[in-house]
Amino acid sequence: MRFLYLVLIVLFCAVNIYGAENDLLMATTTSADNTGLLEYLSDKAKKDIGIELKWVATGSGKALKHGMNCDVDVLLVHSEKKEIEFMNKGYGKRREQFMYNYFVLVGPKSEKNFFKKKNILNTLKYIKENGLKFISRGDESGTHIKEKELWNKCCGSVPENKKWYIENGLGMIETLLMANEMKAYTLSDMATYLTFKKRVKRNNITILVGKSRELKNPYSIILVNPENCENVKYKLANKFIDWLISKKTLDYISQYTIDGKQLFYILK
Length: 268
Known about the structure:
By secondary structure, this protein is α/β, with parallel strands linked by helices. Helices cover 44% and strands 24% of the residues.
């Protein structure tokens, strides 16, 4: 699998250098890809402004590294502190926060009533104190970074070398499938959880802690700095970003649903 991933990255980078004039390359999060949002928006972008969007989906941390390595033109990520650091170091030329969803803590359905009135920090503290099985992505994705932040807030540190705390290094859908099989707890973004819920025949997990200020999850589009990366399609990328944050496209995003449920919301 690792070899295949490296081959795909090499091919992806080659397209960036030799791709068609209207091809725009993006590194993005698994949540934007797994939910079908990017496929939906790419069709709209091709129709509205003639841009052919191509992307690789990974965690926000790895997506930002693609930007540092000049592999792509734009980034769609959700790790605010890392994004600001990326911009401050001169890797990015333009950053626009434009939409959000929420992180949610999911776990066994049988525990839904017990956790009903608990907030995220109290819930994580309870999980730690009782050694309840927790699946962490452990991949420096935006979700993993948020998870570590919450552990530090509730308990002073991130669990390490614990039998109940499992780091799998996998994407969000795979992590949810693992939690579902083991009837364990994990942190997910709301949109990917809803996508997962639609895919599985037997769902053993549910949302235990949902919408709150601490779990708000904003997304940004970032233009990679052409001063560092001469292959960046600067004008095309700006054209795409202008389109993405336009009222027309924000309406597209608001209207995108799964089973009638809105997945992403617009930042005011």
